[in-house]
Amino acid sequence: MYGTREELCVQLENMFTFDEPLTLLVWTEEGISVACRENQPEPDVAEIRAVMKAIGAMTMADYRREGVTNSDVSELLARQREAANRLISVPASLLSRVVRGYERELEHRTGQAWEAGRPEPESVQAARKDVYALKDALAA
Fold first, then answer.
1. Are residue 101 and residue 35 in the same domain, yes or no?
2. Could you write out the DSSP letters of every residue in 71-121?
3. 20 in the same domain as 50
4. Which of 60, 84, 108 is the last residue of a domain?
5. Which of 13, 14, 98, 118 could disulfide-link to 113, CB 3.0 to 4.6 Å?
6. Within this chain, do residues 97 and 35 fall inside the same structural domain, yes or no?
7. pLDDT band of 24, cuts 50, 70, 90
8. What span, in angstroms and rounded, lies between the C-alpha atoms of 4 and 11?
9. In total, how many domains does the chain have?
10. Based on the domain organization, do 65 and 121 belong to the same domain?
C-alpha cells in the first residue's frame, strides 16, 4: 500500500478487524533516501515517491516471498531512471508538429500571465528550454 498515514489507516481498517494482530513495516521518504545513498545522483523527492509507489503496488504474495530490502529499493530507483531516460525513435515530422503545438501552448500561457500582470511562470520558462532543445535536435 502507498499513501498518507490517514489513507493507509482507512485501507487497513477496511481490510482487517480491529482486534486482528498485524506486523506493519514502514518505508518513509528518509528510509528510501538512505537505501539509495549509493546511487548517484541521490534521488530527489519525485523519484523517492515513485519508488514508494512501486513498493506499495507490490502484491502481498510477492512481498511475502521476496520482501523489500535496501538493495531492492536501490534497484527500483535504477530501473525507474533507466525507463525515464530510455531513447525512442519518432518520425521527425511528428515530433516537429508536437513541438510546434506545445510551443504555441507555452506562448498562450505566457500571454495569460502577462495579461494578469504576472511574470512568465518558471515552469513555462523551463518547458520553453525543453522546446528549444528539441528544435535544435530536429535541426541537426
1. no
2. HHHHHHHHHHHHHHT------HHHHHHHHHHHHHHHHHHHHHHHHTT-PPP
3. yes
4. 84
5. 118
6. no
7. confident
8. 11
9. 2
10. no
* Residue in the block written with cell 520553453: 128
Residue found under cell 513495516: 25
Q: Cβ(33)–Cβ(87) under 8 Å?
A: no
pLDDT at residue 108 tops 90: yes
SS3 19: coil
- pTM equals 0.63
> How far apart are alpha carbons 38 and 55 in whole angstroms?
19
Q: What sign does the CA torsion over 32, 34, 36, 40 have?
A: positive
CA angle at 38 for the pair 36 and 41, rounded to the nearest 5°: 80
Domain that holds residue 14: 5-84
Whether residue 109 is found in the same domain as residue 59: no
Query: Both 25 and 42 in a single domain?
Result: yes
Given a contact cutoff of 8 angstroms between Cβ atoms, the answer to whether 73 and 42 are in contact is no
